Amino acid sequence: KSLSDLTILDGQGNLRIKTKKVEKVDGEAYVNIRKGKVIPGYEISLSVSWEGEAKDGEGKTLLKAEGNLEIPYISDENADEDPEVKVTVKDEGPIGKALKEAMLAKGKPLVLEKVRDFVQAMAKGGPVKDELEAKKSAPKTNTTTSNSNSAAVSKEKVGVEKEPKKEVEKEGKKGFKTITMSEKFNCRAKDMYEILMDENRWKGFTQSNARISKEVGGQFSIFDGSVTGINLELQEGKLIAQRWRFGSWPDGIDSTVRLVFNEPEPGVTIIKLTHLDVPEEDRYGNATVVENTERGWRDLIFNKIRAVFGFGI
Predict the structure, then answer these.
(1) Residue 23 near residue 12 (C-beta atoms within 8 A)
(2) Which residue ranges does the record annotate as region Disordered (predicted)?
(3) Which of 92, 158, 177, 241 can bridge 232 by disulfide, Cβ–Cβ 3.0-4.6 Å?
């Protein structure tokens, strides 16, 4: 709502620009509570319509234009980074472009400020903040019945972190986890290998910028730079081993990814993922790194590839 009817310019430079309304919000946002600690999680995209008007020195209207402002990816994984903001205008003439540039120059900072407010609110508990404060101040009781009821309310209204999947999260060195997954695709192994090593296809199925070297020792950057790393070992159609790092992780921490490709029969590929040394917390103390990393592999990479390239569900 804070992005609706937001004044960007009110006559400066003979321009008037304001947002109209939030047209679309996709994704999910939630707040989990673990041992009394707030753990926010969100992956959303949104689109906001805007309108502008340009006048001459005498106050006569030269052009009225409309457009959209899009934020394709807001995630708790990137809470410390400003998301990408895209601005479009329906009239691409000189005045329309001037309005678009003004919206970018003056509107983008205001929109990012609202996004930061959302990120900070989620970190403090979001919509369940008041309820959490009430629970903290409520008198404690020693009765078993009362404690059970309290736990039930907490599960229903706030949401409880799911138990770690034993087949997915394994114990490693203290403070770190190993994620393992086995995924089936209806394609040849070389097809999956080529997709995962091709920056243009990454751009396509993630709808974000990517730079990927195909050489051992070469660097890569995916999800608009949120993930960076180096190729450690490459065997076409058989193995991808890389060093991965998320921008929100504490300084000096890297993880290791191994993707092993097996083709038990023509047209069927099994990828076995092992993601080693994933930190349990990011640099801000949010304990959602392992969960978000696993979800990222499943939903943002593997399932997106299936959907975009038709490799099965």
Answers:
(1) no
(2) 130-169
(3) 241
pLDDT digits (tens, 9 = 90+) for 226-237: 999 999 999 999
- Rounded-to-integer distance, Cα 103 and Cα 97, Å: 10
Name the residue ranges covered by the structural domains of the chain. 7-128, 169-309
CA separation for the pair 260, 113 (Å, rounded): 43
DSSP string across 209-238 = --EE--STT-EEEETTTTEEEEEEEEETTT
Residue 291, CA distances (Å) to 37, 76, 163 in order: 16, 11, 10
Element (H, E) at 154: helix 144-157
Q: Could you tell me the pLDDT band of residue 45, with boundaries at 50, 70 and 90?
A: confident
Tell me how far apart the alpha carbons of residues 42 and 199 are, in angstroms, rounded to a whole number: 26
Q: Which CATH class is domain 169-309?
A: alpha beta
pTM of the model: 0.48
Closest CA to 242 of 263, 269, 268, 222: 222
Could you give the CA distance from residue 212 to residue 2 in angstroms, rounded to a whole number?
A: 37
Q: How confident is the model at residue 7 (pLDDT cuts 50, 70, 90)?
A: very high
CATH classification of 7-128 is 3.30.70.20, yes or no?
Answer: no
Q: How far apart are CA 246 and CA 252, in angstroms?
A: 11
